[in-house]
Specification:
Length: about 325
């Protein structure tokens, strides 16, 4: 998959693409319906399939001091797009220049003039242009004037309601990772660079790979059955998110103990895939009490993950199958 960061520098072989546009934070099942429509339209037209996103997320640009719980940072989002089979991601830098474009200027200069799109696909809640003046109806009107067609995908959901990124964040704040996965269509994963810790886990016999969660990270504190994707493959484990309350509160961290891995992951990028919430975070009276509980947590995680090997519900969904072991 190609990645473009400048609409004015689009190679000729990618012009005429069918482009899905949105923020797509989480790349959930509703987003996947929009992306699948773009891929299908591109196939029928013999054109490249693409997706346009904005980085940073516009909410982070307009409210830089308000913590924002992002579900999929840029690099992970690109990997998900590639797994779905898209040919190109157009990741436009969202700053003053883009924010001040009117809806008509965005269509004329970016979509038609820069990228030369032939067909655009969006969700029903898409807004664009200065002051969010543009909506799907306006996009269709401007598209006709500038030589491309537009398709609006109706919201997708289940009996509980329409799939949304805010619903996923709400689930994760409660530790409901299975419920979040049902909306996503894959096990939610947290990417990060492994950093040095205080080695308390090593001293207890549970050496962990530690990552520092980004600002705004809203996952519930506690223990999770998890898998970690590393350069050496995928490994079963137990993950912890919290402030290590037994040893005194500190900045939240995410740590994962891998059952079948020996080696050094410092400085490497990993993705921690969360499968089930096991228990909430709490302080223990001693290191021995914590060690005993950690042993029980690991056994519980092994049981959850062993069942998953035989019956992974995420294999029912396209992205879940693409990301499966």
């Amino acid at each position: 998959m190609r990645v473009l960061t400048d609409h004015a520098d689009c190679p000729s072989e990618l012009k005429g693409s069918v482009l899905a546009i949105g923020n797509f934070d989480g790349v959930h099942r509703g987003h996947q319906a929009v992306l699948a429509t773009a891929i299908a339209q591109a196939g029928s037209r013999g054109a490249p399939s693409g997706v346009m996103v904005f980085e940073p997320h516009p909410r982070q640009y307009f409210k830089p001091d308000a913590p924002f719980f992002r579900l999929t940072p840029s690099a992970l989002k690109q990997r998900l797009f590639a797994a779905l089979g898209l040919d190109v991601t157009v990741e436009l830098p969202f700053g003053p220049a883009l924010a001040r474009l009117t809806a008509e200027e965005f269509v004329r200069d970016v979509l038609a003039g820069g990228l030369g799109v032939t067909h655009v696909v969006t969700g029903a809640d898409f807004h664009f242009g200065k002051g969010r003046e543009g909506n799907p109806s306006r996009l269709a009107e401007l598209g006709r004037a500038h030589g491309f067609t537009t398709e609006i995908v109706v919201p997708v959901g289940d009996p509980g309601g329409v799939f949304s990124s805010s619903e996923i964040r709400d689930h994760l704040r409660l530790g409901e990772v299975r419920e979040a996965a049902n909306v996503l269509g894959y096990w939610w994963r947290v990417p990060g660079i492994v950093s040095g810790g205080d080695r308390r886990g090593h001293g207890l016999g549970f050496p962990t790979a530690n990552i520092v969660p980004p600002r705004g990270f809203g996952l519930a504190h506690g223990i999770y059955a998890a898998r970690a994707v590393t350069s050496a493959g995928r490994h079963a484990g137990a993950a912890y998110h919290g402030t290590r309350s037994t040893f005194g509160a500190g900045e939240p961290r995410m740590e994962v103990f891998l059952f079948d891995f020996t080696g050094d992951l410092y400085g490497q990028e990993i993705e921690i895939e969360l499968v089930e919430f096991l228990r909430g975070d709490r302080a223990f009276d001693s290191g021995d009490a914590l060690k005993s509980q950690m042993q029980a947590d690991c056994e519980a995680a092994k049981d959850v993950l062993a069942h998953l090997e035989h019956d992974d519900p995420m294999r029912a969904f396209p992205l879940g199958r693409a990301l499966a072991p």
